[in-house]
Amino acid sequence: MKIGITCYPSVGGSGIIATELGIQMARRGHEVHFITSNVPFRLDANHPNINIHQTDINDYSVFRYPPYDITLASKISEVIVEYDLDVIHMHYAVPHAVCGILARQMAKKDVGIVTTLHGTDITVLGYDMSLVSAIRFGINGSDIVTAVSESLKKQTLSLIEPEKEIQTVHNFVDEEYFNMTDRDAVKAEMKTRYGIRQQTKVLMHTSNFRKIKRIDDIVRAFHSVHGRIDSVLVLVGDGPEMNSVRMLVKTLGLQDAVIFAGQQTDVRRFYLMSDIFLLMSEKESFGLALLEAMNCGAVPVGTVAGGISEVIQHERTGYLVEIGDYARAGERIIDILEDESLYNEFQSRMLEDIRRRFHSDVIVSKYESLYRQLIGEDGDA
Ligand code: GMT
């Protein structure tokens, strides 16, 4: 098949999933065309089946805003025609599904449109009445719509009320890269590099430091753990909340115990050094970083927000707490860090659960089957 993919190319779960999916499809022999404003983060474009088409978004002084959506739609339509695409896969309803629909009209070709909803397009934009019609249009005008969690699907149905059926297709982990190989060696090396004693426990979080990630809660949970257990907190990433997080760390007197690692291209090394991965968001449609960290051996503690409770099985593969309940999160972390055999049980159960539910083969086959349905070949998804 010839597949076009449009996503936000910057660091973020939706771009990562779109990129990984494209890579896996290329490995399966499909011809993949990324049509994006930049080369997607994590895309190693060396595969012969991968093509990249970048849009040039010119900033004309006559326009108040650069015309991203229109330029992108125009580019997608050109690629549809030039490469005779069978399917285009749009990540995000707004703007990308809408761009895809426009592109199909411009191209005058009956290309199939798959749209995947990732979260912010629904859980944040869905509350913005000025965008609801566009989101509904993007969903209804796509041929197949998927959401990355059951929770996101339900929220979309209730907030947007689309006519289109939505199928849940969970995210997957690239297990060739995110796995426990050399965990002990990498852990030791990273601890030395960051001046952490070998016996010290490591708690970790990574994100784009948006307010919805509630990183203050992570710092507060860590505060109580640190009072009981020799531990450090490693924060990877950057974003709008960084200053207020730094302030809180100072107020709580944790400067020597919190490492701000900034943005990292190889986040795997950080997962491998971690004992606990924390995701305390108030909105989170899935939490891809959880899956990556878990497959590298870090036991997760998260909130019940959105899809997090579909990823973590409470008291089996990790712990769930209510949104904002950092005190309970701290207690749970202490419980598991103080009981090595319990920790090991959680770790082996979570690895098994990921193999069963979130393996790339399972999920990529689902998408492949959806594409096949669209081009009239049998698909059993
Ligand atoms: O988490 C973010 O802020 C980034 C955002 C994105 O657009 O990349 O992530 C969303 O999509 C990911 C991939 O499906 C999900 O794992 C994240 O949970 C989701 N983020 C939110 O729902 C806040």
Automatic annotation (TrEMBL):
Domain (Glycosyl transferase family) spans 188-347
Q: Domain of life of the organism in this record? A: Bacteria
The Glycosyltransferase subfamily 4-like N-terminal domain covers 11-176
Question: What InterPro entries does this protein map onto?
Answer: Glyco_trans_1, Glyco_trans_4-like_N, Glycosyltransferase_grp1, Thiol_BshA
Matching SUPFAM superfamilies, A to Z?
A: UDP-Glycosyltransferase/glycogen phosphorylase
Spans traversing the lipid bilayer? none
| Protein name (Swiss-Prot/TrEMBL) | N-acetyl-alpha-D-glucosaminyl L-malate synthase BshA
